[in-house]
Amino acid sequence: MIARDLYDLMLLLFSMGAVSVFFTSNHAKLTNYIAHSLALMGSALATLCAIFVFVQGQFTVIFPIVLPFGSIGGTVDCLSAFFLLIVGVVGIGTSIYAYGYSQEYDQCRLPLMAGLYNAFLLAMVLVLTVNHVVAFIMAWEVMSVASFFLVNHEYEKKVNTRSAYIYIVMTHIGTIFIITGFLLLAVGANSMDFSQLKGSLVSETLRNVIFVCVLIGFGTKAGMVPLHIWLPRAHPAAPSHISALMSAVMLKTAIYGMCRFFLDFLGVGPVWWGIMILLFAIITAVIGVLYAFIEHDSKRLLAYSSVENIGIILLGIGAGMVFMSTQQPILAGIAFAAALYHAFNHAIFKSLLFMVTGAVMQATHTKDIEKLGGLIKKMPYTAVFCLISSLAIGALPPLNGFVSEWLTFQSLLFLPQGLIGMTGKIVSALLIAFLGLTGALAAACFVNAFGMTFLAKPRSKKAEQAFEVAPSMLVAMGLFAVICVVLGLWPKGMLTILGQVFMKYPEISALDLINHDWYQITFIAGTNRGEFSTITLLLALVGGFILSIILYSIFGRGRVETGETWTCGIVPNYHMEYTATGFSKSIRMVFKKIIHSHDETLVDGNDHKYHGRKLFYHVHIRYLFVSVVYRPINELIIKMARFMKRIQTGSVQLYVGYIMVVTVLVLIWSTGW
What pTM value is reported for the model? Predict the structure, then answer.
């Protein structure tokens, strides 16, 4: 079978890429070329393998490894193949991008980064394809540890080390819950093989416990609020192409884990499962976009934006689970299609945004958008790619983000059919309203990010001296920009793939996803009808463009003189520009109770009363979940540690005394006194 051969070769290439750096470590350019070429070929094979699975069907392989728990193998079905496709496509782009971007790290442990990059890709592929509990946990741990070292690659910066340790602590907290969920299922099935876990003989109470463990465990890795605190710290610390992989692919491994449990292992559950996911989803989306809007650090902005998009994906999963519970397979298909379509879309446009940010950082050596500006003249191609990705993540037609968010809106509009009565209508209305708010804030957020970065005048010497980046980086960004356009104008291809993913699940009907014309997506459920014509939209855009040209040719041609903007005789400078702080001021004021922002104005203390004075406006953000949830927990742990330090004096006699006291108490308790 072709797919199986591609799979074996893919694993070999990623393994060779991880090992090759030991033989080329003395030659940075050779290491860069060989390691990333092997990663590129492995990613291309991952893409081909996924495509052949959709064409030929699933396959199973047996690895030459035998553990006390049994043999370990891999199964690539359509669900695994869909997420493998994400790994492959994103891996192709980031590997091409890495050729140029990694030159920055020639003197900064490039071989280590390139080897871990291949190991990271290999681990994610194994997470998506192994079919044994122990193998899954092992691959999950390798993925976490590899990403930990990549986040901490520039360990000379203390903030990076702190971010890496927060990440590894949070991911292992999530892993504890994942292992608990797996073991509870495995005990009921008396097997650790994935094929035996479906229909595991566990009580309804245990099923609920497993659901909660899975939601917490995978929700931590996905960045679900309030378990998201690692994400805005880890993403800015990692190199940009690694940040793209973490946001675009690693977060999706958590979505894969949820889908595997909810669709395969646990099956249809009570309605409250879906309602709980919907609740966490909308909180995640709103909180994520609010913090993204007020950020000045471009990579932290993108990290919080990933939190928001995970919330949108979870909205589709939650709605789908509600429809599964109420036996409405067509609506469940719409909701899950919205979730997985958005997972793929987010992988594409978020990778592109991280690449753009990496290009800007390489050209200006800063992540602070307040210190940028005017880069559209210095980096025109990067500016175009940033504009496309900003429109896509803002869910504006005709780009890919619009299609998946439109499907999410459709699934929420039908939610009253799953939640009967006034409750369903109120919940549906609130979710739609908050999702609309999220979309509006996301669009405004990236208007801010694009405008402050690329428009107006440069606000620093670094921005004035910027330059366009290496051709390989531009090629990678161009590839993702094209995919954003194609997935928006031609959704049939992706919807057909999703139809195949859902074919094996009787609770989800895929017929409505497949039986449609490419230019018109129509869903019918009872008396409700949702319709979206991409041809009409495209014709309207083209017609508007032609009309604008005609009007310009008739009325717009005239004498044009170019000069500086009139500012009362003063030559305009960057001090007169709108800032990101000013742009987000209104949102900070409206949502101050949630954001917990603290504004402070400082004035320099010179001796001149009427001239020469400078105003410095500083905004300090207190993060709600850090101050309310995690800091009190941290303080409690420190108090307990100090108490334990007092009783651990190092005296052997005292320790013997502790043992004697405990022994006496146990004897008294055991005799029933």
Answer: 0.89
